[in-house]
Records
---
Amino acid sequence: MKILVLNPNTSDMVTEKIKQAVLKVAAQDVDVVVEKIEHGPEVLESYYDEALATPYTIKKVKEANEKGFDAVIIAAFCDPGIEALKEISDIPVYGTEECAFSAALLLGNKFSILTEKKHKESVKLQHVRKLGLESRCSGVRALGMGVVEIGEDEQKVKQRGIELSRRMIEEDNAEVIIMGCASMAGYSQELEKTLGVPILDPVTVTYKMVEGLTALGVKHSKIGLFAKPAEQKWI
Amino acid sequence: MKILVLNPNTSDMVTEKIKQAVLKVAAQDVDVVVEKIEHGPEVLESYYDEALATPYTIKKVKEANEKGFDAVIIAAFCDPGIEALKEISDIPVYGTEECAFSAALLLGNKFSILTEKKHKESVKLQHVRKLGLESRCSGVRALGMGVVEIGEDEQKVKQRGIELSRRMIEEDNAEVIIMGCASMAGYSQELEKTLGVPILDPVTVTYKMVEGLTALGVKHSKIGLFAKPAEQKWI
Amino acid sequence: MKILVLNPNTSDMVTEKIKQAVLKVAAQDVDVVVEKIEHGPEVLESYYDEALATPYTIKKVKEANEKGFDAVIIAAFCDPGIEALKEISDIPVYGTEECAFSAALLLGNKFSILTEKKHKESVKLQHVRKLGLESRCSGVRALGMGVVEIGEDEQKVKQRGIELSRRMIEEDNAEVIIMGCASMAGYSQELEKTLGVPILDPVTVTYKMVEGLTALGVKHSKIGLFAKPAEQKWI
Amino acid sequence: MKILVLNPNTSDMVTEKIKQAVLKVAAQDVDVVVEKIEHGPEVLESYYDEALATPYTIKKVKEANEKGFDAVIIAAFCDPGIEALKEISDIPVYGTEECAFSAALLLGNKFSILTEKKHKESVKLQHVRKLGLESRCSGVRALGMGVVEIGEDEQKVKQRGIELSRRMIEEDNAEVIIMGCASMAGYSQELEKTLGVPILDPVTVTYKMVEGLTALGVKHSKIGLFAKPAEQKWI
Amino acid sequence: MKILVLNPNTSDMVTEKIKQAVLKVAAQDVDVVVEKIEHGPEVLESYYDEALATPYTIKKVKEANEKGFDAVIIAAFCDPGIEALKEISDIPVYGTEECAFSAALLLGNKFSILTEKKHKESVKLQHVRKLGLESRCSGVRALGMGVVEIGEDEQKVKQRGIELSRRMIEEDNAEVIIMGCASMAGYSQELEKTLGVPILDPVTVTYKMVEGLTALGVKHSKIGLFAKPAEQKWI
Amino acid sequence: MKILVLNPNTSDMVTEKIKQAVLKVAAQDVDVVVEKIEHGPEVLESYYDEALATPYTIKKVKEANEKGFDAVIIAAFCDPGIEALKEISDIPVYGTEECAFSAALLLGNKFSILTEKKHKESVKLQHVRKLGLESRCSGVRALGMGVVEIGEDEQKVKQRGIELSRRMIEEDNAEVIIMGCASMAGYSQELEKTLGVPILDPVTVTYKMVEGLTALGVKHSKIGLFAKPAEQKWI
């Protein structure tokens, strides 16, 4: 089995974090490749960044289909271009946001999302609504930090993360917390010990779910939302 | 007042249909420009098509900001890249899908959407859910025709449109019907007469709402979902 | 085109505020008439007030149909008797609440409503639910002032409005704020500057949307929720 | 204990049906008065009819407060003016629609509503949404008959009622059926035998629930949705 | 008429509280039996406790069917095993939670639930969601006390209950408060006086609703959610 | 890693089917034990059956905690007693229904459930609502066969399954179909080929997801819905 974990931005730091997290948990008989896209923004902090990165992500997913991969994971907690990627792919494509939500549903009544900056709270709420999961989400709270800063200032992330998580638990009735940024990868275990609730790291959670589902031959549906695109004339 | 009506695909036929529809209804003192994007697929029939067209749409919206336009309308009934476009724009950007929904809410208990091909039913249902309007939508029914065919075979569209609309009204409790494809522009009036319910043409409905809202100086919010993107490093 | 903006209460102060607000924004070729009902409560602060005012509003809407108006706007942010008015009218009737909601949907992820007194919070929440828009509304907060006081004590409204709006933005994730009372008409621009988010004045927003939709000949559906009432025997 | 069962229309036939139904089931120690309003439409088939009848219903409810009644039931399956009536009343006021819904929730997964004419399907769906009960309602189907005809042509009601109920059960997953018109009072038992599912007669179900709740001294809340109206100046 | 009020735990204190509450309000011509199950946990504070108690509750409900009871009330505010009990019973079975919710819907826009310990907040939110009533519930707040302590320390319950209820009213927009624990039976009247909103005691509210519905012969549906179980082989 | 796959009924046939399905897909380094409960109904076709089986399931889950298992899967597509089992377990417990839903969310816009008998349609709809997934479920359709018959009459299941699945796809907009009965295990691949959409077999899908999540050390939250039960006195 061959799985591509694709970082849909161009940050080496984030790609490295993803790589370390995934390789630590991958089954031995799986051929895991962790890559980033060739061109695009260093990190994705807006729909705009995502829009510009998606054509390069599409290219990578097309190649993964040709190169015999069995599944692709898009490893940024915003699932950029996920519908387009599923459309043009015969092999399954999974986002770390949707997978983290699917896992969280199994672990408690409601989950909350720790995100980067204030405006991302609205973005996450929209994603949750798009996925039809509003009544299982207890809200979103922002660290007030950018993606790069999160990847670099571990101390600040942990301190604010604990503070915000406590409010999510006590005020919002969260039972599960999702680390909503790929650059937080690797912080979840320590927070979990401190807080006593599951803290999900979307990258590894997604990786292991996908490893399992792909072993079964599970694929996404190609008859509706993700139907194969028709050929278009192009100018 | 200067409004850009932007066709986010490269079809001359569709652009022309939009132009005729809009110019017929525009107020005299408004400077309306109808354009298509420079490069991209001829029509948008998938998220994939949209993903590839969006960078070119972004370019046009950025230019519209620089050229002194007061508002931009994205004239394809899938609102491609709409969040990204609102993020990078200081002037208001509106999609014809979201505007048609907002108008339909005022005209009856539930609206149904006439779409192109079967798989688009799922796409539209997802859009409705993303916008939080599920309890006002009575469903989607597909003509089983592509965008180009719809623009060309008027007779077939009308016949099937009437047939499907009758089922929407009788079986689904639709009270308002939205012509869910820009290439249907111009067919709504005749259907309206035959069926006796409002048949909304998203392009003109959007245009007139935007003309009004822009005259008031209404703009979209820039603090949450559509916050201005931060500068990113780019590789 | 001839539009009736109908104040469904008998306050001269409120009618005058509406008149000034509308005339400032109306297109030159539109014949706008701003009127109040002949009898009824000075202001509408309860369903009870609305119930007593509605027969007089009906009378006015019937007359507007006979007098050749093209559309009617009910200019109180509670849309009193709106379903009955749409039923008995062949020309379109719009409420300022429903129209403000429809506009707010286009401008941000969630909107909040600034209302008069505490108990109105429940009333607004019920309206939002009736219209199926719960997942787009970030809540309601009350000034703790009556309609008349709001119309008269501009300073207090502004100060409290800013304070409450800040809480809506920071605590409730509101991105758009609706001034939920016709007597607040005229306060929105200043608040908008201070707060940096769209502050919608329902009367003018509704007026411009209606001006546009009516120019297109858009009418409400008469087959379901707003079907023409059958003649009844009367005792 | 003294309960007023108020028919908010002026039909003697319907009032008589209500009276017979209620008196058959009332506890012996309760003083039940069944009355109709003094002026108004013979039956209520639209929001318009309701709007005209409500001021007369208000009058009756005010009198009931003064005359020492302990509770009022509004016995038309559209709960006309119910919010206004609860506002101006210190004694509890109940509608037969809301009470039938509350009872139906206890008896099966989903309930369906048998209504009069096609357009009423939309009206009922709106009511269900206003009350927040959409996920418990399996739909509405119309007899295609007016209120008076329903009260008079028992045979036709039963035949069509059985036919429609079978479709509600088999196609819509209804487990409970509500006879959605006061003039159907008295038909439920026979249908229940034929169909093998609970067929709720809103008038009697409401009456017995109210008898019970009133004996306990239960009253509606007066702090939010139904707060006491402030005095208004009147012109 | 003969009604069994069944305490699905083995606490004599709670059973006695239920008995006193019910006997005070029962109609004279009703034969009310208040009993507890024969074996099981003293109180039910978890799904685990409920799971162990349910087989004994089933036994009692089966016996009630044989002994000629007309209805059974399960008098613990968690409705333990309620679906199973309705399945195996021909006579109606009602839970005090579901009935309290049904009553609360009639009394205000939203209801809140006062519960025992913090973790029960999630449990109640899940129940509300299961019953499809999320948009009518303004939340749950916990006393931080166990069932037995609640039954014994009246002073503490009242003090904390008042404090929490005030927050429910002011912060959560609750209009009705449900005393969510059978051992709180008897505290509601005093709180109601202090707080000025309806405080529902589920046991008595349920009892009177059931008394009324049973007098009418209302039964639950046996075709779907509560269909009679097929015989099974048993090992 | 040691996983217990627990059949919460006493059917050898079903246990054997589960065993074959799971062993075929288990990773080599996992110690999988497939067992049934010691006493209880042969199959679970009602909440009543589940209620009687749950105490025996609890016993097994407690033992699994003591015997050093790392996770438990409850392998009946009704997740019987799942909340109680999660409460009393420190190791994670997963149901095949909830896991199949979580997987289905990743594969298409909406999923439908193929169930046994007609009345189970309501049961499944309630489960979906309890889990907050209503807007992602396109409905339930029943084979009209019991659990045992489904396990035995492969031909009939396939034929009816194909027929019903076609209706789910065409009429209900299903994109993914869940084989909603453990005794259907093994039928999914053939249906998948015929129908061209993902047909999920809950047992194997759950097994592989759990294998992955457990390898990561993911556990359910113990602070809210699944908090550890307090000790109770027992009579």
---
Amino acid sequence: MDEDLWAVVPAGGAGTRLWPLSRAHAPKFLHDLGGTGRTLLQATYDRLEPLVGDRLLVVTGAVHQDAVRGQLPELPAEHVVAEPSPRDSMAAIGLAAALVERRDPDAVIGSFAADHVIADPDAFRACVTEAAAVARTGVLVTIGIDPDRPSTGFGYIRLAERLGDFPTAHAVASFVEKPDLDRATAYVASGEYRWNAGMFVARASVLLDLLAEEQPDLAAGVRAIAAEPDRIDEIWPGLTKIAIDHAVAEPAAAAGRVAVVPGSFGWEDIGDFEALRDLLAAAGDAKGLQVLGDAADVVAVDASGLVVPMSGRTVAVLGLDDVVVVDTGDALLVTTTERAQDVKAVVEALKANGRADLA
Amino acid sequence: MDEDLWAVVPAGGAGTRLWPLSRAHAPKFLHDLGGTGRTLLQATYDRLEPLVGDRLLVVTGAVHQDAVRGQLPELPAEHVVAEPSPRDSMAAIGLAAALVERRDPDAVIGSFAADHVIADPDAFRACVTEAAAVARTGVLVTIGIDPDRPSTGFGYIRLAERLGDFPTAHAVASFVEKPDLDRATAYVASGEYRWNAGMFVARASVLLDLLAEEQPDLAAGVRAIAAEPDRIDEIWPGLTKIAIDHAVAEPAAAAGRVAVVPGSFGWEDIGDFEALRDLLAAAGDAKGLQVLGDAADVVAVDASGLVVPMSGRTVAVLGLDDVVVVDTGDALLVTTTERAQDVKAVVEALKANGRADLA
């Protein structure tokens, strides 16, 4: 455990494509999507705790702070930082960086989303440890996931030269946007690209100084809040809404100030029910129909796909392949893995029908 | 209204292929499958009442008698006859015939199932009125439905010569079993066949005398119960389980003692969810997705088929054609119209899994 290392866990995003499991009032990080008995947030904590102990800040929406504290009773309550409103990832991570910087300007922070799934936590921690070592040299470090398929759903990181002082780190040539399938296939075949999982490691002051070069008002804003927390409601609404990638990572990469530690630890961003089905299928030995919940609540005849029985009722599925059935106390979704990415359309239809309460 | 005409309504059968809407404890005749505000049983009563007033006997399982009386408060309580156990249609109708015979041996009874749907009750009553007139000549009369498609799901009635004394009646050449598609197509093309909807009209004594020729013990048994109702628990369990078609109609047809009144009044036997979808699609103007229940509870995006929202929850369907979603308080079914006839397999799986309570 390196005493200068802090973890920052931005816990935001509604996970609309996982409706009705994930809701605005209960987003996906609060749910046990892996069927492991721990929610994604708790699993994120479990994965980081051996590295950072309670030097971990969760930044979440004000409406979720009680739920977050409830799920992480081990964490000091003041380590759950409430955003008055969503202002994208740079403001959230920047505020956490500023809070850490006031305690220890040389501290290293690593930012890791609350809703990712990682199969091999030991390998993950080894990557973070190397990334922290690289970060202590004064650069911004990202962790790049070794791609196992030509995904068009992620941005990519293009590697530059190896950094010889470290076991696996490279300089970053550039961050590239989500590619089409042809380009993604070429990226993966080249061996020169990694997935951008949005994991960044840097000294708190390095991150904020990089931010100050690109977005001086934003850097000054979060530092002002860290200095005078009571001013958050005054300052926060004026902060620029921008993702950390655009605010800091891309400009710094262009300036040759970003390194990447490649990692292969079974990372998944469970963005929709097809990904959830794939996760459960890979983890379990059940064929055909995957169940997240009590399998005794499901009766399947000639069926495959995913059933999430959360209402206590019996769910029977007959004669449907790649179906998705998500059964909650007040809402039921029936779709297919193929259409899983379009679940947002259902949530929009609900809102249009005056049922925003269910969204 | 002909004062000698009685209606007999056998109300039995679990309607397993309509699970979880229809249950052993709440079979389909107790449900409003047409979305009309009246259950199938109530609609059957409504259809017959102009012909028979309260000269109507419902024969149902002992466990359903309270529900039947509750749905038909207009009917004298003693007109709901409880079977101690299911003994097929001949025992049920035979007992009702014997009860009527004791009041009026010359009375004509017409037997009509409690769970059929009829679009044109006036045309139905005109058929029954002609059938009763034919029955008064001392024959067994059936009503044969003009087929609108080569169904393989029904038995057929082959017409013989016209009976000139009546507007539309024919003699019956024979009853034929459910045909394969080629034979059904030929039957319909010939114009000589009608569907057997299990509707029989006869003088009570004629029906029982025909029965006495074929099944003397059964005829004697139901007559003995009618004479001494307290003996039902003693006699009933020994009665032969046989359908009225096999017990009386087929032998009588072979002997030239059955007539048929052809009818065209939009008859449907809602045997499964595909038939229910078709019924709702024909009745309503909604395209694509049919809803039996409150359409405000359903959100559909690129979906067709049938949704039955009965739990009060919101049901969202995305990207599925010809899907069937039946949402009740304790059980949910997701299948397709194509597999609707196999719903029995789900109920059998439930029983095998120790969930007979849901069946």
---
Amino acid sequence: MFTSQPIGFVRSPYTDTGQIPKGLGAKHEADGVLKILPEFEPGLTDIEGFSHLIVIWEFDRAPREELRGKDLLASPPSDNRQHGVFATRSPRRPNPIGLTTVELLAREGIDLHVRGVNMLDGTPILDIKPYLSSIPSEKLRRGWLAEAEARQK
Amino acid sequence: MFTSQPIGFVRSPYTDTGQIPKGLGAKHEADGVLKILPEFEPGLTDIEGFSHLIVIWEFDRAPREELRGKDLLASPPSDNRQHGVFATRSPRRPNPIGLTTVELLAREGIDLHVRGVNMLDGTPILDIKPYLSSIPSEKLRRGWLAEAEARQK
């Protein structure tokens, strides 16, 4: 067990979850800034060589509840059926950890200018990792999400 | 801030970090099992429809230190130069969070049989998310890692 500590905070155009594009075909193209705390600046060394970053962050405004039984089912905006939280990106999860892949546009000191934020303004950042490789799309199966997309067509 | 809680544990062939393939060209093809705790089983509903999962886990055997200044530089096994921890996958990070993409081979109740584990046996799992989409490889730049690969050729 460990206690999370922010390494920085997200600057995003979204101040309310209702503003964040959600559901089938939602595009995450908003620009934002990952503002890293000055004491962690050496950890950014050479990060500017990567085009994409994986940002791990905290759902700090999701309700803190002990999730058990039916609470572990989520109703994602992309479907009218419920699915297990681990098969969704729902904010209500046993550990309030979010994950977003962003494109790194520019680094200015402790400010990482990125495209593709879907977090609320002020969201605590827990970690940043370089995006190294992709699963080829022809090898991906996307379960209920693909089925929901097919039903909508 | 939150305190992490395991949702399960990894069964892996690796009991020592020296056994885990590392460095340039390392392949992660080991089979393992994500053993989810029974109280979280409803959260797995419909997960079997996804071919790939993102596993978020805890570096529970990395030393716990306050990292500052030069401690935030890492010497990855794929290069003889140091880079900022946020530009590497080093286990020594401000929040001891690891991330691995695995292929889901089969689900048996609370056991997820997966390919591609690179965690130690007994590693606590914090979260599982469905892998939904990839950045096309032609759009990826991989900074120091690509340079280290080029130097080795």
